[in-house]
Amino acid sequence: QLQASGGGLVQAGGSLRLSCVSSGRSFSSYTIAWFRQAPGKERAFVAAIRWSGGNLYYADSVKGRFTISRDNTKRTVYLQMNSLKPEDTADYYCAAGNAIQSTAMRPQTYLYWGQGTLVTVSS
Question: Given this model, what pLDDT does residue 26 score?
Fold first, then answer.
């Protein structure tokens, strides 16, 4: 199971840090990703991190503003979001799966999903 938290209301230009905690024993072997879904839109890839933490992938829209990291000892992946924009408003979901670079951005790659945590950025 994956548990996402950390969402909230923030003004444009502000920061939030999302956390995704896993209760699964295989957490450290999976790629963990963040996706987001805004009202009326499809779920979109945000960022992913391979099991070792050495491979990071980002959507172009968040590069330079968001940072993904993981602590396998705590079974937790973080998404630090800085310089937030109103267009970042969405439900954010974490997911776990056996992704590689060519598949990390595809939702269907991921086997396990957490519940969403809502991020609202006001202008």
Answer: 75
